[in-house]
Amino acid sequence: MFRFMRKHIHNHLAERRIRRSRLVAKDGRCNIEFGNVEYHSHFAFLKDFWTTFVEIRWRFMIFLFIASFTGSWFFFGLLWYWIAKTNGDLAGQSYAKGHVPCVSNVNGLTTAFLYSLETQTTIGYGGRAVTGDCAVAVALIVIQSLIGAIINCFMCGVILAKISLPKKRAKTVTFSETAVICPQKGELCLQIRVANMRKTLLIGSQIYGKLLRTTVTPEGETVIMDQVGIDFVVDAGKDNLFFVCPLTLCHVIDKSSPFFAMAADTLHLQDFELVVFLDGTAESTSSSCQVRTSFIPQEVQWGYSFLPIISRAKGGKYRVDFSNFSRAVPVPTPHCALCFHDESYHPPPIQPHAQGQAHPEKRGIDNEGFEVINIDDSADNTVM
Predict the structure, then answer these.
(1) pLDDT at residue 140 above 60?
(2) 340-363: per-residue pLDDT in tens?
(3) How large is the angle between the packed helices 58-87 and 135-163, nearest 10 degrees?
(4) Which of 149, 163, 159, 147 is nearest to 53 (CA)?
(5) How far apart are CA 168 and CA 184, in angstroms?
(6) Residue 249's closest CA among 205, 186, 198, 299?
(7) SS3 sequence of 339-381
(8) What pLDDT digit, counting tens, does each position of 56-81 carry?
(9) 289 in Cβ contact with 167 (< 8 Å)
(10) Range with top average pLDDT, 96-105, 211-220, 249-258, 317-326
(11) If DSSP states are collapsed to H, E and C, what string results for the chain?
């Protein structure tokens, strides 16, 4: 029992280390933080305030929305209160007969706040209004109306921009949970599935990948995130995909591939992360978006192939069964890429040559360390 618990705890800690070491999460978020940033560098975010407002979280956006309006109402309410107090319009102040207030029915801080709210929101109940005898009041109502319009336009623009962010469109594009390695059309391929959940297309879609791993240069320098380009193709190519149904992305494992030196029993012992990108333009909004995900060695299945998911119904429509989207079944696959290429190579048969003709061309190289030993066939050294 204790051995089982210790194994379970060990596996749980190993999974936590795997999640912690992943640079790109399955949903595309990047697991990275910046440290020791100089203080004055933070002001760069204020200079690019539009992007900062668009990228902040919704809870902060709602707080800023409420704070900007209520703060401006209260600020201008204090100014209207100051004008009323300076002109002697407040309750309890003594004023001469025939006194004309700057703003009618503003006799306290509460009424001044209400007038500020009614002015900026253009409600205008009719109980409070500028009389026109105070130039300061006329100037203030113009300033408040302009500032209120600016706040309205800015907040509406930010909220609209946040709602229509291209990364929201990326939420409807999904990748398979795992990648598989299996033979495909005479080549050993690493395959990944991707599907567009909407019927609207992604125009000009392009797919590519990056293999992240730690390497050591010949000079002894350790590169933590060394990036190696990974090419993915489908039957129609890798550019301008017809992304109307789920596609299977293929990476051919040849001698130029970083997966060529890996094998079935050593794959899960490797330390790498495969990040896959899909770029495209949304057909309905014409906005560019990028979808990305990642696969670690434990999420790559050697010797498996994806189940088919597209079929044709009786009514003539094509049906996609997403229950088999990430399911894979074992298929006969060589132990390693080198084995696959060796097995697929068939040397040409030796043609017989007539007497007197030159000996056919010799293939291969001479092994100078090879030593010929004569063996006595009469001796039987086999021990049963």
Answers:
(1) yes
(2) 777 554 434 434 444 444 433 433
(3) 180
(4) 159
(5) 34
(6) 205
(7) HHHHHHCCCCCCCCCCCCCCCCCCCCCCCCCCCCCCCCCCCCC
(8) 889 999 999 999 999 999 999 999 99
(9) yes
(10) 249-258
(11) CHHHHHHHHHHHHHHHHHHHHCCECCCCCECCCCCCCCHHHHHHHHHCHHHHHHHCCHHHHHHHHHHHHHHHHHHHHHHHHHHHHHHCCCCCCCCCCCCCCCEECCCCHHHHHHHHHHHHCCCCCCCCEECCCCHHHHHHHHHHHHHHHHHHHHHHHHHHHHHCCHHHHHCCEEECCCEEEEEECCEEEEEEEEEECCCCCEEEEEEEEEEEEEEECCCCCEEEEEEEEECCEECCECECCCCCCCEEEEEECCCCCCCCCCECCCHHHCCEEEEEEEEEEECCCCCEEEEEEEECHHHEEECEEECCCEEECCCCCEEECHHHCCCEEECCCCCEHHHHHHHHCCCCCCCCCCCCCCCCCCCCCCCCCCCCCCCCCCCCCCCC
Show contacts of 153-162: CB within 8 Å, 24+ apart: 155/65, 155/68, 155/69, 158/50, 158/53, 158/54, 158/61, 159/61, 159/65, 161/54, 162/54, 162/58, 162/61
Specify the pLDDT at position 295. Answer: 92
315 alpha-carbon distance from chain centroid: 37
- Token pair 């495209």 is found at 280
Which pLDDT does position 63 carry in this prediction? 94
- Tell me: the pLDDT tens digits for 24-47? 888 878 887 777 666 656 677 777
Which residue's structure tokens are 């991707």?
Answer: 194
Residues 174 and 326: their CA atoms lie apart, in Å, by 11
pTM of the model: 0.65
